[in-house]
Amino acid sequence: MRHICVFDVNETLLDLRALDPEFQRVFGDAAVRREWFGQLLQSALVTIATNAYSDFGTIAGAALDMVAARRGVTLLDADRAKILGGILTLPPHPEVRASLQRLRAAGFRLATLTNSTLRVAEAQMMNAGLEEFFEAILSADAARRLKPAPEPYQLAAKTLGVEPKEIRLIAAHAWDVAGALRAGCAAAFVARPGMVLDPLVARPDIVGADLSAVAAQIIDMEH
After folding, report:
1. pLDDT digit string (tens) for 109-128?
2. Which of 86, 107, 166, 187 is the most buried (most CB within 10 A)?
3. Amino acid 1: pLDDT
4. Domains of the chain listed by start with CATH number
């Protein structure tokens, strides 16, 4: 079966390290960016588990406020806006563009599925110069449930006109891979530095160190 390749966006396609200088400036430590994103994911999972939806941007702002409070930092409105606004202009990882070109040339259908709102997702793809590769830019916000809840993956399949088993979610996050697999999709894991799979979840059939390695395996397996 040739799957439709559906990509997570933040950290999978786009490089969050571009925000590090702002975290260094505001918090005195670039590593706080990872703490913030971890808090963002934790807070997002709470909304899923408790059925109390908030959009990803709102959660991102709240998580930033939590990190500032935890660290005793007074977060100025301008600094808050600059960090959160920086999400819109994240650059792609170096190998992403060529990897997407290779998949498209091999005849694969490509789409994105992100927890960010559609407005943010569209701006990200446009600013990163990647929008041309995707037939659809999809947001979990349309399902009013965030990944890794099953609804976003199901919505992606429905929007693309296929069954969940016909899409392959490609992500650099173990929780996203878990959500896709448990929603009945195939998956591929981009093992970017510091990213590891969850041993409690079935291992996807494709794992690579970056998107180039993952794309090569997809083409070898399904072309």
Report:
1. 999 999 999 999 999 999 99
2. 187
3. 85
4. 4-15+90-222 (3.40.50.1000), 16-87 (1.10.150.240)
